[in-house]
Amino acid sequence: MQSHIFGAAQGQHIAQPALHSGWQGSRTGSNGRLTTTLHTQVRKSRNNMTTTTSQAAAEAQQTDGAASTKKLWGGRFTGATDPLMEKFNESLPFDKRMWQEDIRGSQAYVKALSKAGVVTEDEAATIVDGLNNVAKEWQNDTFEIKQGDEDIHTANERRLSEVIGSVGGKLHTGRSRNDQVATDTRLWLMNKLNEIRGSLADLLRASVARAEQDVDVLMPGFTHLQPAMTVRWSHWLLGHAAAWQRDDMRLRDLMPRVAMLPLGSGALAGNPFGVDRQFIAKELGFYGGVCPNSMDAVSDRDFVVETLFFCSLHLVHLSRWAEDLIIYSSGAFKYVQCSDAYATGSSLMPQKKNPDALELIRGKAGRLQGNLSGMMAVMKGAPTTYNKDFQEAWELMFDSVDTAYDCIRIATGVISTIKINPDRMLSGLSADMLATDLAEYLVRKGIPFRETHHISGAAVKLAEDKGCQLSDLTTQDLQGINKLFEDDVQEVWDFDRSAEMRDTEGGASKRSVLQQAEKIKTYLSQEGI
């Protein structure tokens, strides 16, 4: 039998004999030959292991020596890095998405260095031009990633020095990857949150357009998923739009906190060369100002957590909307039908049309809640200032932002193309849903609502006993319960009237629903989105 250990320098598995505690005492022969043989094998194995490990370490030092000198932190270290650790430590496979932000931040920073007299204007211009050339390589997909490029910062700086020579080494003067990575992340988020906000505005506009178009369509409103009262299809749609508008407000409030500049904070204690942080903030468009404390600037990931919270809560709202439509599109309801662009069929049942877009939105909402919980767990135990744990933020952030953006756009497509079935919605209305209207009829006759509630309940019971609809009760039937019922009570059994009676601000009347749509349009106009 063999077990395996990792060679410390090279990360390869080395086989060695497995030792079992019972062998020496109970399973040796009378002359102890098994014990002697075993001990000999163990000594040989240990010698082989030491030799193999030493050779691998030497080989790794030779092969990685050139690469290690390129690391931004390599001066302190003389030994080679385990290749497994190289892979474990690197973030370039995912943080390369921020190449543009990294280059923009570096260009603004070298201008600040020039302004502070740390580099000459010619040197700054050379570095800026060199970074433009590096950017073109990324744009043209010709940037060559090399061994030792553990992150986007290292890769860009390495390539810069290859393009312009040793002057490229002046770029990092007074700067740490701690403030650099926070700057890149904030810049990336500023751009993406603007895109999300634009797509959210499109979703709200699509909702308003459908609400205005279908404002006359009545449908049952549900509580506890039971038919409750008469509402308008547009009222239901704008109910979800109201939640999405709150999401936009949260996003709007979050963005200035994202747009705060950490660059110039150094590793944690500040910049020793007097760079003008306000100048850098203006260059990069950080309209929220500069981070007020250098230790907090490199430590803060609240803006990531808040972004994940926004994405998670917005997906909760989209998920509830999607769940409603999944129910309404089912065979039992048939209120709506998703267009072919957002539905799929069954591999077995030809008649099926599945609302996959809606189901995926509902499912992705769960994953984004997990991302938020994961990020909170990463942060809760991190001591003050920068820690490598923060690297875990990016994949969670990228996934949540990408997913939220995609879901918003899919939802906009669904709303714009979904087919509604007004006749099926109308058939879902039943007279018992007007029981509250019957109670309110007597309120207008001066009877306290608590009494009319019981009177209306008695009418419901009478209809059940007679085996008829509530609306089938005659005026005489109702007068047997309360003498204040008159012939005009028959007007109660009008579903459109029921919706129109809810004419307060935010209610189900046509006027009110159109007013709600107008308010959203006004909001979008005032926000300039």
Helix/strand layout:
Blueprint lengths: L1 E5 L6 E5 L5 H4 L6 H36 L14 H7 L2 H4 L3 H17 L5 H19 L12 H13 L12 H37 L4 E6 L2 E7 H26 L18 H8 L9 H6 L2 H27 L7 E2 L18 H25 L11 H26 L1 E2 L1 H6 L7 H9 L5 H18 L8 H5 L15 H7 L8 H18 L2
Antiparallel strand pairs: 1-2, 3-4, 5-6
Helix pairs in contact: 5-6, 5-8, 5-10, 6-7, 8-9, 8-14, 8-20, 9-12, 9-20, 12-13, 12-14, 13-14, 16-17
Description of the structure:
This protein is mainly alpha-helical and 529 residues long. It has helices at 23-26, 33-68, 83-89, 92-95, 99-115, 121-139, 152-164, 177-213, 233-258, 277-284, 294-299, 302-328, 356-380, 392-417, 422-427, 435-443, 449-466, 475-479, 495-501, 510-527, and strands spanning 2-6, 13-17, 218-223, 226-232, 336-337, 419-420. The chain has a two-stranded antiparallel ribbon. The protein has a two-stranded antiparallel ribbon with strand order 3-4. The radius of gyration is 34 Å and the shape is elongated.
Provide tags for this entry:
529 residues, mainly alpha, 20 helices, disordered N terminus
Largest sheet: 2 strands, antiparallel
Beta fraction of the residues? 5-15%
Radius of gyration equals 34 Å
Could you list the spans in which at least 5 consecutive residues all have pLDDT below 50?
A: 1-69
Sketch the topology as an H/E string, one letter per element. EEHHHHHHHHEEHHHHEHHEHHHHHH
Tell me the number of strands. 6
Distance between the termini: 69 Å
Q: Helix content range of the residues, please?
A: 55-70%
Q: What gross morphology would you assign? A: elongated
Strands of the widest sheet, in order across it, are 1-2
Structural class: mainly alpha
Mean pLDDT: 88
Number of separate helices: 20
